[in-house]
């Protein structure tokens, strides 16, 4: 590219309301990137019917990328090329949906960002100089270097990163299998985990498996009288789901929006809470206190469906069980649900299954063991968050806290739709977790119209043991896999120090086989510096991007549309979708599976990759559940999309309905945890007593009481773009006409204070780095919080990078990338 | 027969699906968009207006309004812009000379003059094989995907609206969905003061 070319053409741009009239990138035509097409604007023969024989067909498949929407697509193919993508009809057409990214797949496949042939770095890392090589050269050289590193430093010196991005079952999991046998050190993604784990802890989603949230089936939303949108801008992030909510609103549903950003949904809210960023967990505790004050408790729900009546041992923090007081030892202590409670009517303790009147309050000594109800512990914690103080923390009126409480007490059923606006701070865990307690206190769960977060769970039907997705090693291996996972937040430090968790861990090579850590991970400048410690960086991807720029070998991957697959294991619709092959592989690319096989062969691991790609796909469907749900592969293929939701059951749309236990470790909703564990353990110490119970701390950086605030008074939010998924689709030319360049959205108050006007070039900076973008004046931004939409690649910024502003700090318990927990200042750049 | 479209302004949230579907189906050249999303709020796309937190933000989409009193048809010196019997305003690009009279006459800013050989993204055409070709020196715009209508289809923008905000049909047929909607809902048309009698209705 033409980085310069692009910059120049962008700088010619003037901001015009709306879009397209904008003359950006005019004529300059196609972007040209190394390893990608070097085409100038192509010419077309007139698109008239010139021959009688037109080879045109429609093929269905799911969309494949990291938003996990898993939308069902209908692809028009003409003369072997993908010429149009639209929504396919789901068995229930209410689930039909796509977004502008999926509609733009032809651009992703044929556009300028597509990698076309293997390359070897020819200059310095990041310099952008490459030479084209053959696949044999690439694989031979990579494998020779890996073997050298193995000999010198051992297996763990090779790190791997295989996450998200392509989201294909066969491809992504082929890498998981390969890396299992290579015994690599895994570089964890460390994102969105507070949201997922909070759902897991409180409600029973499979949080540790990442984002398998529990909840009622989507169509249940019509049963909710109120819906709370909390830290989510689904208009941008999951637009295919928006219509459900708009339709519910048209039917009379009311909305609460709790968000520092004024969103489209906020414009329609009946109650809008313009909350201070990262204070959401405190707000939830304030609402809980308001519920107590107004006698709004659903006592029956608390007793029957939550941990409230369970007795917590003063000595161990564990719930008291029959086995503790002379009852029979359970077969499996880890799943022992024979809790002891205090029988209020009888004035003594009893087995939970037999006590009709368990006490919610009280301290007791049972068989010499001192215990206290979990509910009492919660009440004590709530005292730390009086409503007046919560109002100060959250910078909202006390009245708003009471209004929200009143809705939960008196106007249910209430559903809560929560998003990553709560997650992406160092205090993401309490922000995500505490809101469930509002539902627990008021009985807004396990019933129609009470869903907490979105469900998605199609993965459960597939066999992932062979593929190496699960931590258990592949079925055909005798090895005991002991893989180290270094969280993304510690990866840079590990590279720099050669130590992880107090042990030497000298990483010398990094395989980045999907995803774009250099584009989306935090603390980018530190990461770039640490890359000097690596002798080898290999990237396999469909598209170019920030990670490609820093690697030594580029392996171009066939797009998801170029092979058959099962797609995402996680969908936001209730369907398992068969992913048909749409077009033949393009250019000199190979599928992820082929690449994994070639690397395995070159590394002497070929014996584990004897199955064909097609046989590998069959392996996923080799489970009784899969056979029951989707049938044979041919049957699955013929059906296209198969409903996995157990609708036949009574109250089948409702998670935890009909008294069915929640999928938590206690079968109950949990505001208290018997055991606490961080996602990654590296010797850190965390306050178990504090984090076992709903709590709230300010975020580590983006807080007005932080000393740094005097120097950097603006919180930097990174909105999800409707035009990109993380960095995917960053080089789609048609979308760039609508959304041509990185911007910084600012409230007029913040802009005026700095003499900044719409369209000005501005530098957003802090001690870690800076990024230069164009200013957009937006009255919907909270004063004191700016918004730089994410997902741009380095060469698209005027200078710098958004992730140069971010840091890798976490609290010791919640290991998660805190993208929004950032302070900065903004200044105008004179032109 | 009068084809018309209705946009529910309570439902449209600016997702851009309709704009991109139109672009793909009609193989529109670079920088040509027949159907655009308009932000009703601040000065730029997706910005709210008003003072935080008492802001407002909404959207609608804008393409050719297929006016009953089509000013573009009235001023066209060659007869290239015509009003079809089904209500669609259509440009015959075999006849159009690109004089821009229609662009000046149209109050909606929805017509584009193709200046120079059209530039595309790919070396093949996207979308519909029988979509209108794009020609140097001619004016083009939304034609309700007339090539689809003529085969019994509906416009590409109707394929999938994430807000379920779009309606299309014959408003001369009182039994059509869109006729019933217009009979039961409040609506307005863009720039009613121009007295063009548009066939695109904004439901409120």
How would you describe the overall organization of this protein?
The complex is a heterodimer of chains A (831) and B (204). With 831 residues, chain A is α/β, with parallel strands linked by helices. In chain A, 26% of the residues lie in helices and 16% in strands. In chain A, helix 5 (169-182) packs parallel to helix 21, helix 10 packs antiparallel against helix 13 and helix 10 runs parallel beside helix 16 (435-442). Chain A is globular. Chain B is built from 5 helices and 12 strands. In chain B, strands 10-1-12-11 form a 4-stranded mixed beta sheet, covered by helices on one side. Chain B is an alpha+beta fold.
pLDDT < 50 runs, ≥5 residues of chain A: 1-32, 207-211, 468-480
Mean pLDDT of chain B: 97
Q: Helix and strand string of chain B, N-terminal first?
A: EHEEEEHEEHEEHEHEE
Largest interface: A-B, 80 and 63 residues
Global structural class of chain A = alpha/beta
Biggest sheet architecture of chain B: 4 strands, mixed
> What's the β-strand tally of chain A?
31
Strand content of chain B is: 15-25%
Reported for the largest beta sheet of chain A, the result is: 8 strands, mixed
Count of alpha/pi helices of chain A: 27
Work out the oligomeric state of the chains in this entry.
Answer: heterodimer
Shape of chain A: globular
Whole-number mean pLDDT of chain A: 88
Number of discrete helical segments of chain B: 5
Low confidence ranges of chain B: none
Helix content of chain B: 10-25%
Rough outline of chain B:
globular
Structural class given helices, strands, pairing of chain B? alpha+beta
Topology, please?
The complex is a heterodimer of chains A (831) and B (204).
Chain A: H1 3-11, E1 56-62, E2 72-78, E3 81-87, H2 100-103, H3 105-110, E4 119-121, E5 130-132, H4 135-153, E6 158-162, H5 169-182, E7 185-187, H6 193-202, E8 226-230, H7 234-237, H8 242-250, E9 254-258, H9 264-267, E10 271-273, H10 280-293, H11 299-305, E11 311-313, E12 340-343, E13 348-351, E14 363-366, E15 369-373, H12 374-382, H13 387-394, H14 398-410, E16 414-418, H15 428-433, H16 435-442, E17 485-486, H17 488-497, E18 499-500, E19 503-504, E20 509-514, H18 517-520, H19 524-530, E21 536-541, H20 546-549, E22 553-556, E23 575-577, H21 592-602, H22 613-620, H23 624-630, H24 633-639, E24 641-643, H25 688-691, E25 714-717, H26 733-738, E26 743-746, H27 748-753, E27 761-765, E28 770-777, E29 785-787, E30 799-800, E31 823-828
Parallel strand pairs in A: 6-7, 6-20, 7-17, 8-9, 8-16, 9-10, 20-21, 21-22, 25-29, 26-28
Antiparallel strand pairs in A: 1-2, 2-3, 4-5, 4-22, 11-15, 12-13, 14-15, 18-19, 23-24, 25-31, 27-28, 27-31, 28-30
Chain B: E1 3-8, H1 17-25, E2 36-40, E3 49-51, E4 54-56, E5 58-62, H2 71-75, E6 81-83, E7 89-91, H3 101-105, E8 112-113, E9 139-140, H4 146-149, E10 166-170, H5 177-184, E11 187-188, E12 200-203
